[in-house]
């Protein structure tokens, strides 16, 4: 079983525009959709579509529309009590795939609810193959909550993946000595922030077909105790680095429609391959296939296995560039 943990879930409402977004103008929406969201929920949705045994853990009230949406999506879930409604996030997509997101902060979690969430995660850790900690943290939750949970999971039999950003990611990185997850999934900007590199240099190099700066940066995190670093690079694909090697995979040509959930889909693809016993290059191939398939779908739709084209993704072994002393 793969257990995803989403401390700050959301209902993701996506509206599509037929014309470019102009600040201050009136726009006509061509379509609108709503899906249960939050990064961990998105991972669970993609895994459930593939028939992988998964449970989404999240804070929500008993009558929250989020739970109706999860049931409709066929996602098993377990909740801890929350005093507020699950937030609604708005995504605006344009015809060329440009995506603008407006995210609410989320309902605060008090100490009691946070303790219940932590206990639930630790309970599942005894039987799960993976615990996936994903997304932002809602008001009231300390920035180092992910780091604290990862440290408590150090002796559990499960493996741990983390996908977060900003201050929670910084707090996790500061605790890598005691709280090093098995997998982290930064994008180029997040990776650069962790190692003191230039985000633009990493992104430009990857876009020009040279992933070695990304590999070198990710290798620094492996040296700090992270077993696997999966770096998503948008249209440039993704890089995977672990102690056994490093690889880069570029996505097939697509017509992008929405980037919502593409990174979450990539992590779901990696996990789907991992629980199937795949070697690292195959895990990367599945991750990129899932991410590109998600970007080709409208709104916050996530890909089903029939929409995944593994053969269109080529994986290349990369020799890492020397890291700076």
TrEMBL record:
Chain ranges of the Carbohydrate kinase PfkB domain: 23-305
MF-aspect GO terms: ATP binding; phosphofructokinase activity
GO cellular component: cytosol
Keywords in alphabetical order: ATP-binding, Kinase, Nucleotide-binding, Transferase
Database matches in InterPro entries: Carboh/pur_kinase_PfkB_CS (IPR002173), PfkB_dom (IPR011611), Ribokinase-like (IPR029056), Tagatose/fructose_Pkinase (IPR017583)
CDD domains with a match to the protein in the record: FruK_PfkB_like
NCBIfam families named among the record's database cross-references: 1-PFK
Membership in a protein family: Belongs to the carbohydrate kinase PfkB family.
Protein name: 1-phosphofructokinase
Lineage: Bacteria, Bacillati, Actinomycetota, Actinomycetes, Mycobacteriales
